[in-house]
Design a protein that fits this description.
60s Ribosomal Protein L30, Chain: A; 4 helices
Amino acid sequence: MKSVFLSLVITFCFSFVLAQQKIDYDKKLKELGIELYEPTKPMANYVKAVRTGNLLYLAGHGPTRADGSNITGKVGVDMTTDQGYQAAKQTGISILSTLKGELGDLNKVKRIVKVLGMVNCTDTFTDQPKVINGFSDLMVAVFGEKGKHARSAVGMNSLPNNITVEIEIIVEVE
C-alpha cells in the first residue's frame, strides 16, 4: 500500500513539474520552419490590437508575407481549397508576428479563445472550414491544447485588396 501511494505521489509531482515548464515558442517556431517578422502597421485610423483585462483582441489580419506582399485571389475561381489553406496558414504567421510584437513573448499567451475566419470565395464555394483549418492547425502546432479555440469560418463576396483570407482573434493573456 505504501509503495502504491509513493508511486502516485511521485507521478503527481513529476506531472506537476512538467506542466510548470514553459515552452520556448521561438524554438518551437524554428522547429516548424516558421520565421516571424516585424508586424505591419495599420493603414487607417485603427490599431492592430486592443487589450482589456486579460483579453487581447486582434484586428483582422490577412495573408501578409514578410516582404509586405499579400496572397490574393478568390477561392473557387483563382485558387484551390489547398491554396486557401496555405493563405490561412500565412495569416496565422502574420497574427503570431503581431502577438509577439504586442506581448514581447509568446509565453504570455494563455489560450487562443475565439477565431473569426473570413474566406474570399465564390458564392457556390462551401469549404470555408477547410480553408480556415490552415490557421487552426498552425495554432495547435504552435500552442498545443492552448491553441484550440472556438471558431467561425464564413465566406465573403470580397475582402480588402482581394486578399484570400482575413482572420481576427481573441487571445487570453497573462
